[in-house]
Inverse folding.
């Protein structure tokens, strides 16, 4: 019996050992996850590695909600959706990085370029007028009182030669002065100073030596005196008519010599660093099509006009054929290289977001599987054509976003990361309703201040806003053709806004906003794809918010509204003339989806 029991124990151990060995071999062959094979190829290893990534989950209605596992939104109860992934492999990833999928970057039309060194060059296009050379203008005034007996200049614009008679004057005072000279001649030898004084008096009254000699030879005073032209030229002004009585100091004629003329160009403050004495300017005059004049800058006005914020830049042209006439419009093209042979860091203007206080770019993070960008504040030098000169904040060879920059910034805002509107980071308050709630959140970042602008500018901006509202209505109707048409009208209204009405920082701020507003409108106008139009519209509205926040409207109120589901669940803003929610990003599909974020009065 004992032997039988020992045999059973031995057999049991053998069976148990066999089972254990089989289990281990099965795990080694088929892997530790059931039927999944163990990764052996490079592709399988990458996929296995990705399976260890941790996913962040968020709510499409409330993007401020972020969790490490799926579930329901604690605010609205909707299912959470995956937002982004973060690797647990020890990579040093900055919390301020904006990661985008390849499809999202393609949809946003993201383009990048490397920071390079080069000689900053700029081509300035100037507007101006032909003007008379002020050094060749002669004004004739009455040196003595009298009456205009004859007038030889009958109209303004008449050509006269040097020494030609312009008018004849009868003057009792002049007759008396001539008699004094004739009396003084008798004492010419004994009292020469008396003679010289009488002759000098007539010269001060604008008589020439020849005229005075003729009086002495004749021996009798002349009753009439001829006014002679001091230069050859054109009569600009004729202030007297035949028979007029004149007093000492009264203007008679103004004569200008037009064989040389000036062209005075208006140069904005931002243009002045690029202009130097001696720079060559190519000049075109509308009155002489097909002909280009070349001249050099001879003078730069040391004063800025407080109204237009421009300074005059002068060039001189020869005009022997009299084809150039004062007040003709002229355009000039000036190519400048103020750095000479020195090279500076240059970046495209489209890469820069400017807030009035900060200049911002988004630098592409190297060695990332998906496009990834990070916020960077930089220092800028002068504008060099389509580029900026960078003074600090970037290194040669770094890669930056040059197209779709505003869309990257919008994504950063929605994710609560560092952005143009929020340099310290932080999530923008978000929520969702269907038109019942009016949440006045105020300024998005607290840094945009209202500036006092010229009332004319505000009226022009309000006219543009009214054109914008019509475009917004077309978006609500989901009519791509109507959107394109109204966008063209809005572009025309935008071009009617005169930036010269603004001064100092306000002027520069509006120029920077135009760099976003105008291209976005033009892209909307030339597209017939409603989805692409709405994508540009989302970009446009973020910049338009800055404009309306800074300058305001003329006796009007607008509502800044938001939908978190628009723009591919990234959220998007728009302006409405009414408080009721009418969503331009979805139209009838979700007309009442959104909320009012701010009321601008």
């Amino acid at each position: 019996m004992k032997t039988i029991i020992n045999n059973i124990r031995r057999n049991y151990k053998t069976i148990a050992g066999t089972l254990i060995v089989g289990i281990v071999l099965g795990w080694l062959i088929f892997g530790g996850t059931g039927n999944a094979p163990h990764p052996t190829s490079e592709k399988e290893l990458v996929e296995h590695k990705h399976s260890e990534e941790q996913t962040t989950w968020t709510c499409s209605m409330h993007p401020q909600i972020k969790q490490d596992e799926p579930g329901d939104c604690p605010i609205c109860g909707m299912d959470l959706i995956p937002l982004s992934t973060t690797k647990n492999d020890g990579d040093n990833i900055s919390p301020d990085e904006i990661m985008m999928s390849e499809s999202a970057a393609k949809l946003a039309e993201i383009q990048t370029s490397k920071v390079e060194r080069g000689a900053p060059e700029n081509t300035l296009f100037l507007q101006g007028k032909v003007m008379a050379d002020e050094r060749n203008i002669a004004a004739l005034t009455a040196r003595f009182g009298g009456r205009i007996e004859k007038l030889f200049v009958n109209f303004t614009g008449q050509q006269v030669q040097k020494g030609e008679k312009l008018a004849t004057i009868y003057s009792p005072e002049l007759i008396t002065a001539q008699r004094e000279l004739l009396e003084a001649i008798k004492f010419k030898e004994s009292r020469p100073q008396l003679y010289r004084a009488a002759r000098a008096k007539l010269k001060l009254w604008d008589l020439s030596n020849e005229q005075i000699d003729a009086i002495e030879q004749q021996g009798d005073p002349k009753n009439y005196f001829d006014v002679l032209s001091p230069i050859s030229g054109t009569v600009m002004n004729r202030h007297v008519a035949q028979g007029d009585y004149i007093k000492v100091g009264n203007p008679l004629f103004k004569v200008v010599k037009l064989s040389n003329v000036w062209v005075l160009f208006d140069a904005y403050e931002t243009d002045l660093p690029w202009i130097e004495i001696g720079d060559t300017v190519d000049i075109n005059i509308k009155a002489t099509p097909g002909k280009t004049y070349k001249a050099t800058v001879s003078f730069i006005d040391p004063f800025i006009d407080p109204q237009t914020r421009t300074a005059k830049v002068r060039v001189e042209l020869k005009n022997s054929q009299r084809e150039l006439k004062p007040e003709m419009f002229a355009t000039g093209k000036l190519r400048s290289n103020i750095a000479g042979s020195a090279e500076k860091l240059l970046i495209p203007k489209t890469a820069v977001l400017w807030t009035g206080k900060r200049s911002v770019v988004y630098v592409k993070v190297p060695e990332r599987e998906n496009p990834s960008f990070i916020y960077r504040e930089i220092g800028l030098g002068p504008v060099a054509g389509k580029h900026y000169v960078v003074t600090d904040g970037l290194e040669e060879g770094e890669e930056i976003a040059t197209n779709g920059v505003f869309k990257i910034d919008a994504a950063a805002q929605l994710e609560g990361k560092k952005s143009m509107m929020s340099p310290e980071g932080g999530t923008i308050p978000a929520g969702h309703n269907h038109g019942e709630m009016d949440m006045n959140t105020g300024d998005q970042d607290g840094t945009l201040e209202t500036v006092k602008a010229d009332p004319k500018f505000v009226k022009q901006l309000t006219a543009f806003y009214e054109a914008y509202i019509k475009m917004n209505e077309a978006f609500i109707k989901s009519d791509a053709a109507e959107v394109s048409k109204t966008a063209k009208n809005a572009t025309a209204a935008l071009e009617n806004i005169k930036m010269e009405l603004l001064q100092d920082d306000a002027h520069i701020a509006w120029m920077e906003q135009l760099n976003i507003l105008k291209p976005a409108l033009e892209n909307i106008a030339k597209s017939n794809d409603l989805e692409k139009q709405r994508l540009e519209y989302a970009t446009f509205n973020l910049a338009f918010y800055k404009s309306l926040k800074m300058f305001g409207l003329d006796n009007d109120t607008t509502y800044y509204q938001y939908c978190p589901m628009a723009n591919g669940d990234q959220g998007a803003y728009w302006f409405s003339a009414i408080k009721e929610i009418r969503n331009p990003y979805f139209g009838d599909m979700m007309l009442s989806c959104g909320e009012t974020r701010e009321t601008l009065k």
Observations:
- The two ends are 104 Å apart (CA to CA).
- Residues 2-30 form the longest helix (29 residues).
